[in-house]
Amino acid sequence: MVDDASERGGRVKAEGAQYRKLAANMRREIEAGEFGNNGRLPSEETLAEQYGVSRGTVRNALALLRANGLVTSRRGTRRVVLGTARTQSFQELLSFTAWARAQGEEPGARTMHSRVRPATVAEREVLQLDAGDEVTEILRLRLLGRVPMMLERTVYPSRVGAAIERLAADSLSHTEVLDASGVVFADSEHTIDVVAADQTDAQALGCIEGTGLLREIRRATDPAGVPLLWSEDRFLPGTVSFAVHNSASVSSLARRRGIR
Description:
Helix content is 34%, strand content 31%. It is α+β, with helices and mostly antiparallel strands.
């Protein structure tokens, strides 16, 4: 049984890495203009033959490209390339470390506490947990160039949190660790508002209690829609802004570095 479970886990990890690698290759080709703006992509079957992968791998790679605003589906046609202008990737919006590196910045992290505890009523609802289930709660200070920028509160279902509970306090990216463990992030929901800094925020970020902080609440799920995390990031004023682009065929969100 243990061998079977290990084999399944290895297979899931390999499949996840394969479709992400294919998506990265296709992204480079799209950005190089190989398909042209508004050009139609080949069929899933043709792409599978071209890249030597399964149609399922192609389908997952195309879903990731769609999430990143590079392609879309239009009724009665194959997937269409939206454009070659660079958009922030799904990974950059999911991971502070990936975003910071894409901006040419030096990311930093300091874990203030990590603990396993029973899930609250709200957490059970959002993460689809049962009464009595536990979560892993992480509180981390995030930095850019060693300057405090954001306080990150993340709650993981215990099955996910187990992969990061023993990481070093200055470990930069939990997302990369989870990716390497075979956890596949497919979708995320973002809610952005302003919240008053509490005592914990003020002490960590060096601001006055009650200061307005830009808050991003994020919920991420796997390809089957199963929740993987629920997080609340609180940014110091003027450090970042978020821009939303809407069109009839796609909506995309971008995080931008602000001016303090």
